[in-house]
């Protein structure tokens, strides 16, 4: 199998998993977006996935993503792709990230939101608020009790468009417990900000659980591209 065939087979498997999970949950598969996480993989793979019909790609490190997005633009000029930043982000990288990302999914503080708004200037940058369900400060994310305040802050920024939340499954909690904890916060967020309706949750290992609990976007790396040789920090 060449790389294109391999990626096509992986993509078919992932789509089938999403389809089965939606069927089991009584949900429309059109309501679950597939975000390909391409960190550590080359722009050539992104090009092949774009040829296969994917349009949303994510990276977690600014230094890697910037050159990769430029390379992709060379490989597939005019391809309609959108790039997401899903990794933790220092404020001094805001300007650089805004140079390549269409959406930042890892906004977890007012200060980061301010830096992104300044960097975005007259552009409108889509953002998700990264939520920490267990409040573990090492893994990034806004603790649940602070989410309403952060959401109001972001919504007041003309340069940012609040689209919803992103979460990474906490360690040592069942998916049921984690999503129960998230549910109240998401309901309140949608009540206060009706356009913030994205729930980005679920990765290669747990996308079925996430879809069962209402995820509208799954972020898939290894199941699409294979295992990563480099540990990604
Ligand atoms: C790497 C990464 C993913 C994808 O993880 P896989 O287990 O490879 O599917 C999803 N979300 C974030 C934030 C990541 O950093």
TrEMBL record:
Cofactors named for this entry: pyridoxal 5'-phosphate
The keyword Magnesium appears for this protein: no
InterPro entries in alphabetical order: Ala_racemase_N, PLP-binding_barrel, PyrdxlP_homeostasis
Modified-residue entries (N6-(pyridoxal phosphate)lysine), positions: 39
Protein keywords: Pyridoxal phosphate
Location of the Alanine racemase N-terminal domain: 11-227
GO MF, one annotated term: pyridoxal phosphate binding
Keyword Disulfide bond: no
Pfam families (alphabetical): Ala_racemase_N
Gene3D superfamilies reported for this sequence: Alanine racemase
Alphabetized PANTHER family for the sequence: PROLINE SYNTHETASE CO-TRANSCRIBED BACTERIAL HOMOLOG PROTEIN, PYRIDOXAL PHOSPHATE HOMEOSTASIS PROTEIN
Family indicated by similarity: Belongs to the pyridoxal phosphate-binding protein YggS/PROSC family.
Summary of the function given for this chain in its UniProt record: Pyridoxal 5'-phosphate (PLP)-binding protein, which is involved in PLP homeostasis.
NCBIfam families membership: YggS family pyridoxal phosphate-dependent enzyme
Protein name per its UniProtKB record: Pyridoxal phosphate homeostasis protein
